[in-house]
Write a sequence for this structure.
């Protein structure tokens, strides 16, 4: 007997099987670069689905308390013991190191951070978390000290760590006195001013907090004090189904689900609306193409040593352009920038334009590199469109891996070799020989590489 038919699928908000809607204001704010994520421990290392116990529960049990303390009250009791603060910090460090040791734990947190990283226009994040998840997974520049504010680059994704960072243990906000000092300083300092400005001007989404969370209470008190009746409408993402009733008199909309489901649903909607490219497709295409290009680059160097034909340096440079372009796409995953169709299209056009200019300036080796760099992005974009739209691939439009000045690109080795044998343009033959001499490789002993810069 199949027992599955008798099992009722859980529909609770925590499991994420409920049909929640993404408010149109949030989608518009994302497209207008006008969104702020205010993140708590529920989306990171202290999430209920991440580890068997929270830091709070471990400390509570060690002290023999009855779970009736707030987080700062409990940490104060622990720190009041001999060497308490030092031991607590070491506990926190060891806890974070433990998480990093097991991919299974990290993969749970990636369910929130990876789709967030894809949404390239989310640039402003405020958090009470100490860990480095936003820095490592979302390419965030951390803002911990007041002196960081004047150095901010508006184009970079930032995380304001108002409770400190594990990278700067003296900044950690844990005890009651820490909390009092922290919020007194936020009322006056540059970070507090920046946070107030973001909360008053932008669409703010709270994720990873509960109403019982002391962090949330302190934040809400800060907002009430600083913005009062002028505070804008806020959104709170929470699996707590009682939160809607509890906050019905507040100027908020509660979305009943967990943070990872909320962010993933936004990502999917933005992909459907063609605002965002699908990372599952794009990065897979880039990775597969990179493996092919690396293999061919090695074979082309072997071919050059065997045939002693200096013209092959143009194909090698072209292939290096392809390789570096694809590596750049993959290395920038955490920023999400290559999932921006406009950014990708403009990058392609810019590199093709640069290649043409370098040819005009008599620099064919660099021009070949730039042509390869542009071609890699162009091919990835083309293949992405075919896969996403479920369109058949043009068998003639495959990645080109060979190049000759003024003859352009080849995706057919036989055709390339025929053109290579019959190539008569002495100008580019002589330039190739000169480059080999300058590299000290006139006897073809070592592989040629174009550096990842001009």
């Amino acid at each position: 007997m199949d027992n599955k038919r008798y099992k009722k699928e859980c529909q609770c908000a925590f499991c994420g099987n409920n049909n929640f809607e993404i408010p149109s204001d949030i989608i518009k704010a994302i497209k207008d670069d006008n969104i702020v994520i205010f993140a708590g421990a529920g989306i990171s290392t202290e999430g209920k689905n991440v580890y068997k116990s929270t830091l709070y529960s471990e400390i509570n049990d060690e002290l023999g308390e009855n779970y009736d303390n707030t987080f700062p009250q409990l940490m104060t009791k622990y720190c009041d013991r001999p060497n308490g603060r030092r031991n607590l910090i070491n506990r926190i460090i060891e806890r974070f190191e433990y998480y990093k040791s097991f991919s299974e734990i990290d993969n749970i947190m990636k369910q929130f951070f990876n789709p967030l990283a894809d949404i390239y226009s989310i640039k402003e994040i405020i958090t009470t978390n100490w860990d480095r998840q936003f820095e490592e997974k979302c390419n965030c520049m951390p803002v911990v000290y007041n002196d960081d504010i004047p150095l901010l680059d508006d184009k970079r994704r930032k995380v304001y760590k108002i409770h400190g960072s594990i990278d700067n243990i003296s900044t950690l906000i844990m005890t009651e006195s820490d909390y009092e000092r922290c919020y007194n300083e936020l009322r006056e300092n540059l970070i507090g001013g920046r946070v107030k400005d973001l909360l008053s001007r932008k669409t703010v989404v709270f994720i990873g907090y509960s109403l019982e969370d002391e962090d949330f209470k302190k934040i809400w008190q800060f907002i009430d004090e600083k913005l009062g009746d002028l505070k804008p409408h806020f959104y709170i993402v929470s699996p707590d189904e009682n939160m809607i009733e509890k906050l019905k008199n507040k100027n908020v909309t509660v979305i009943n689900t967990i943070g990872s489901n909320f962010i993933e649903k936004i990502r999917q909607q933005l992909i459907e609306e063609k605002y965002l490219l699908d990372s599952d497709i794009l990065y897979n295409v880039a990775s597969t193409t990179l493996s092919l290009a690396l293999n061919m680059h090695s074979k082309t160097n072997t071919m050059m040593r065997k045939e002693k034909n200096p013209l092959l340096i143009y194909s090698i440079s072209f292939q290096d352009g392809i390789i570096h372009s694809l590596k750049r796409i993959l290395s920038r995953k955490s920023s999400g920038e290559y999932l921006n169709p406009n950014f990708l299209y403009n990058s392609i056009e810019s590199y093709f334009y640069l290649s043409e200019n370098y040819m005009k300036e008599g620099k064919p080796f660099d021009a070949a590199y730039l042509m390869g760099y542009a071609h890699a992005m162009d091919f990835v974009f083309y293949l992405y469109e075919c896969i996403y739209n479920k369109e058949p691939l043009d068998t003639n439009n495959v990645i080109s891996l060979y190049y000759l000045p003024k003859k352009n690109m080849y995706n057919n080795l036989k055709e390339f070799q025929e053109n290579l044998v019959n190539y008569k343009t002495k100008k580019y033959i002589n330039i190739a020989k000169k480059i080999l001499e300058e590299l000290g490789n006139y006897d073809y002993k070592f592989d040629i590489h174009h550096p990842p810069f001009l």
